[in-house]
User: What shape does this take?
Amino acid sequence: LATSIISQKETPGLGSKCTLPAFLDQFKGKDLKGTNFTVKKDGGDIDKVSGSTVTSRAVTLACKEGLARFHKEVLKEEVKPMAAAPKTAAAGPTVEVKAEQLKAALPAYDNDPLKETVDVNGSRYYIARKAGAVAGYGIYSAADGFGGKIEVIVGVTPECEVTGVVLLANGETQ
Assistant: This one.
């Protein structure tokens, strides 16, 4: 499964490294129950990008908050994150989510997740199906970065294991 960035406005060599697979791929295989979704500098399990701590924190926070909302709103279970719980619900994306972005984050599917969405308490979820069965979900989430809002799609299996993270938009330094 590949991870890709559709667009970014980071400073070359600094914040832009948060869009690279070397950073984003470390989320794959992780789940909220066994991973401290905080950067290691702050006592967590996620390696930050050198010179881009704020952006690294924002992407990590967006993933953690999206996963926590998904557990609560869709799976109907309370999971205490290993770090502070989310403070706010995410609204829907401010940018158009594209099929190639979902394909990069979600497990393999044969439906159109763009046409099968669920909005719960202001949060948007994309449902991926394979042969009619749920193969996974795309969770929209956002957090404040150094230069503004960072928006992500976190792909997960039905068991809520991360399959990929795609950065949709950010307003970080140019």
The radius of gyration is 15 Å.
